[in-house]
Amino acid sequence: MNNLILNILIYIHFDKERVNNQLLKEIVNYAESSKIVVISTQKVTLGAPSVMKAEFDLLELAYKSSNYKNFHLISGQDLALKTAKKYMFF
């Protein structure tokens, strides 16, 4: 387990009306060894079908552009309480 090299891809969907270049730079710089892919396909309205459409777009991109079989979908109010190594077991 100590030799496990984490190769995690992080896919983020930002609301089309809220995304800005400074925020994107900060997020990409924060990741140490992970690759971050950011998409912004549409304006997302809480409780509307646009939420599911954005999630579908994100999962579709992740599925088509990687060899992963499992994905963790978390939203803006979620907080990952475990280290990245814990997620590698799924």
Automatic annotation (TrEMBL):
It is found in: Membrane. One of its GO terms (molecular function) is glycosyltransferase activity. One of its GO terms (cellular component) is membrane. InterPro entries: Glyco_trans_14. The keyword Nucleus does not apply. Keywords: Glycoprotein, Glycosyltransferase, Membrane, Transferase. Signal peptide: none annotated. The keyword Glycosyltransferase applies. It is a single-pass type II membrane protein. This is Core-2/I-Branching enzyme.
